TrEMBL record:
It comes from Lentibacillus amyloliquefaciens. Signal peptide: none annotated. Belongs to the aldehyde dehydrogenase family. Keywords: NADP, Oxidoreductase. It comes from the Bacteria. Pfam families: Aldedh (PF00171). This is Glyceraldehyde-3-phosphate dehydrogenase.
Amino acid sequence: MSEVETIKAYPFLLNGEWQNTTSERTIEIESPSGAETPGAVQAMTESEVNAAISGANEAQKNWARKSFDERAQVLHSWADQLLLMKDEIAEAIMKEAGKGLSSAEKEVVRTADFIKYTAEEGKRLHGELINGGSFNAGSANKFALVNRNPIGVVLAISPFNYPVNLSAAKIAPALIGGNAVVFKPATQGAISGTLMIEALDKAGLPSGLVNLVTGKGAEIGDHLITHPLIDLINFTGGSQTGKSISQKASMVPLILELGGKDPAIVLEDADLDKAAADIASGGFSYSGQRCTAIKRVLVQDEKADELVAKIKEKMNGLKVGAPEDSADVTPLINSKAADYVTGLIDDAVEKGAEVASGNQREGNLIYPTLLDSVTKDMQIAWEEPFGPVIPVIRVESVDEAINIANESEYGLQASIFTKNMEQAIQIGNELEVGSVQINGKTERGPDHFPFLGVKSSGVGGQGIRKSIESMTREKVTVLNMTQG
Ligand SMILES: NC(=O)C1=CN([C@@H]2O[C@H](COP(=O)(O)OP(=O)(O)OC[C@H]3O[C@@H](n4cnc5c(N)ncnc54)[C@H](OP(=O)(O)O)[C@@H]3O)[C@@H](O)[C@H]2O)C=CC1
Ligand SMILES: O=C(O)[C@H](O)COP(=O)(O)O
């Protein structure tokens, strides 16, 4: 048997059947650590993609007629199945996304919690009744019944870094809202995505309601996003990909969760131990491959030396190594990503940044790197590394910190560390971001909080309740009463 024949090729789920592509082409998943491939997925053909979309369109009609409670039962059962498959799914996340095993296990548990909360939140989705008499030119004999209806077929496209959580964060709210889903996982993440759909299938998923589409985004992406039966696109990934989708998908509602360059703004009165601990864990966990990772530090000059020393100290507590050992910093997703990060570090060092810690590389593993005295002419001041490197930019005033924070093309989150709550709130109001964390690291969770990015960080809102609202639309029925 040849080496290629020993690689497991995972099938896709199309209209209730697990199938292999008629193209007979598979895509081998890379191991970020350079170990053997964890398997392969099918490169689906255009006609298989069409069948997935039209099957979902058909299945949605029945699903929309089900009560919230019936839909919720499927979701609860999905969460139970995910937990039963926890070890297998966590191993897949570890092998294809290079995530530390214990974080991968936490991702599965977090996802089950997410799905269960979504099921219950769906049941609490109430419409409203508006009386026409409350408007000057209106009439008290008119009543608007405002209900939330499904949108139809949601195209869910997810990134590699949270291949289970960020996929379920689209699929579960879409389903509870009465939609069908065509799910295209990141190729590097597609085995985990396939396994989570296997769990959903075991939970009693109606045939065609969620169809799994595997294949390279560069090959099938345009076809998917421009298909006339796609009613909404819910995308998480890089800003470049997101912007290109938004240009091509005309008149289709979009939810885009894109890149970030989240600053930690540290004021002179901050608790520096707390700030340093949050910067180290917020910037380096999962090797900085989180949209919400702290990606730059803006610190008042007077406190910069002390803060840098404390961050370095906290960095000693980071475990660097293999995903199997549950390390915090593990090899990056592929060599292109690692080369990109190395290039950013080299550019900064050439232009005068000081390496306070790190700047070592072994294969795709980049040691956590802290760059001090970063200036605005360096690429690392502006670009999203999606890797374990934090630039420290020293500022002379709070206004300078706000200006640099807002000069970024991104606007996901920002942290402010200070004991002065009033000032923190004032600064927060000035920052062009979706969320501000006061005295805490930037992060998405808990998952029922609203989550959104502005500028190049995204369009539309998520977070369990928001996600259900974003993937349903209001339907207004006006009752015109005869004069009583
Ligand atoms: N704001 C947020 O909530 C989050 C944002 N992100 C961002 O995601 C990025 C990292 O994820 P990464 O997976 O590398 O992002 P990519 O943009 O490379 O890929 C995301 C998804 O888009 C698919 N895709 C690629 N090209 C196209 C196309 N032309 N049309 C449609 N789909 C396409 C990919 O498929 P394939 O894998 O086959 O190429 C993948 O499924 C970072 O920038 C990060 O900040 C990540 C998590 C959360
Ligand atoms: O979008 C991401 O990268 C993840 O959802 C981040 O989630 P976290 O901030 O809770 O790690």
